[in-house]
Specification:
Blueprint lengths: L4 E13 L10 E10 L3 H6 L8 H14 L1 E2 L2 H15 L5 E8 L11 E8 L2
Parallel strand pairs: 1-3
Antiparallel strand pairs: 1-2, 2-4, 4-5
Helix pairs in contact: 2-3
Length: 122
């Protein structure tokens, strides 16, 4: 497993995710961080976009995966995003996805709630 990593931080999406009835009918804001482990040495040598994972394409894949489903748990959203990232580019060896709900429905003052998962290519 390489220690090289493409990092995306603070990607905002509107998605349906939650266990409460009101969370099941309207999209709410989430923030995602995605780290993708891949050998970045080839692109470091050539300075060519074709030799690396295009983060613009990754952003589109992440948004599509998060926004197209309806999830009860953030764990399920993170899993769908991780699978989509690994499927999108064979150079991706592993992915860590963090999902944060920006307006958690609790009476306490809580900035965010979230999960972080790591999945590796099988």
């Amino acid at each position: 497993m390489t220690e090289d990593c493409l990092r995306l931080q603070g990607l905002r999406v509107m998605a349906i995710c939650g266990a409460l009835p009101e969370e099941r009918v309207r999209a709410q804001p989430f923030e995602l961080d995605v780290d993708i482990g891949a050998d970045l040495a080839p692109s470091g040598r050539t300075d060519e976009l074709g030799d690396t994972i295009d983060y613009g394409e990754v952003c589109a894949v992440v948004c599509a995966a998060a926004e197209s489903g309806q999830f009860t748990l953030m764990e399920a959203m993170a899993q769908r995003v991780a699978e989509a990232c690994l499927d999108a580019d064979r150079r991706a060896q592993w992915v860590t996805v963090e999902v944060r709900k920006l307006r958690p429905p609790v009476p306490q003052h809580l900035s965010t709630s979230g999960v972080r998962i790591t999945r590796a290519r099988q």
